[in-house]
Design a protein that fits this description.
- The chain is α/β, with parallel strands linked by helices.
- The protein has one domain: Rossmann fold (3-Layer(aba) Sandwich).
- 37% of the residues lie in helices and 22% in strands.
Length: 274
């Protein structure tokens, strides 16, 4: 991966706010890996039916994929720490249509697991782990070792403590020139309704670990790319965005914690730092 010193320095000094869906960012990540002739190994935390995993595999063409999800009704006990939900947080019943059934019924999650399992059945390059992320971490580390993965997509439990825990653990499985991507990294009305803590968790994580934000989608339920500060992959991602047709503006990475979604009278969502 041949990146100039000026490219390395620029990538550390800016975060690109991009006007595109997350699927376009997958193309950018793929292009960055290709500059280093890297065929990545990937982990996805939070799989559901496997739609996003299938899209990632199509674009990144990983040599190996590990898909982690508990597929457990019991795991939703962490949705809120309060006996009575705050008025700004929707009850779990509001999400039953997305999950395809009652979230208090384990059968709902068993059905979803079967969809994902059958989707990747027979593929030797796909490993499915039905477990919580911390237990899965230990299993993956034992089987593959530290630094064995080039791309990790974090989309499991979205509550603050759990996102931070996933980031602090799984950074050890990421290669020096690896990429992490987080889903639903935003502060918005929809985010508050779902009790999201992703944005706050990644802000804390980057105080504890030597990572920098590379790109943030200017959409509600934003996606965020992070990479190690000073890494060649951070510069390659920055260069790939420069060479793409994706509109963006550059801001200081320190502004990430103040990101929030504004909705225009016409219903268009934009990221604001004001």
């Amino acid at each position: 991966m041949d990146v100039s010193l000026s490219g390395l320095l620029h990538a550390d000094r800016v975060m690109k706010v991009v006007d595109c869906p997350r699927s376009r960012l997958y193309d950018v990540v793929a292009a960055a890996f290709q500059t280093g002739t890297c065929r990545p190994a990937m982990i996805e935390l939070g799989v559901h039916k496997g739609d996003n995993a299938a899209r990632l595999m199509e674009v990144l063409k990983p040599r190996h994929s590990v898909l982690v999800d508990a597929w457990s009704a019991a795991s939703l006990a962490t949705y809120s720490h309060f006996d009575k939900l705050p008025p700004w947080t929707l009850p779990l019943t509001a999400f039953e249509r997305y999950f395809g059934g009652s979230l208090s019924d384990q059968a709902t999650f068993d059905r979803t697991y079967e969809v994902a399992r059958q989707r990747f059945e027979g593929r030797s390059d796909v490993e499915i782990i039905r477990d919580d992320t911390v237990s899965a971490f230990a299993r993956i580390r034992d089987a593959h070792g530290d630094g064995a993965f080039d791309f990790i997509y974090v989309d499991a439990n979205h509550q603050y403590e759990y996102v931070l825990r996933d980031l602090l653990y799984y950074q050890h499985l990421l290669a020096p020139n690896g990429v992490m991507m987080l889903n639903d990294c935003c502060h918005s009305q929809k985010g508050m309704n779902q009790n999201l803590g992703v944005l706050e968790a990644v802000g804390n994580f980057m105080k504890r670990a030597d990572f920098t934000p590379v790109a943030l989608t200017s959409t509600d339920m934003s996606d965020l790319i992070v990479a190690r500060r000073g890494s060649q992959i951070a510069a390659a991602l920055d260069a790939a965005l420069d060479g793409s047709d994706i509109p963006f503006v550059e801001v200081m990475p320190q502004m990430l914690p103040s990101a929030h979604i504004r909705v225009s009278p016409q219903g268009r969502t934009r990221v604001s730092f004001a």
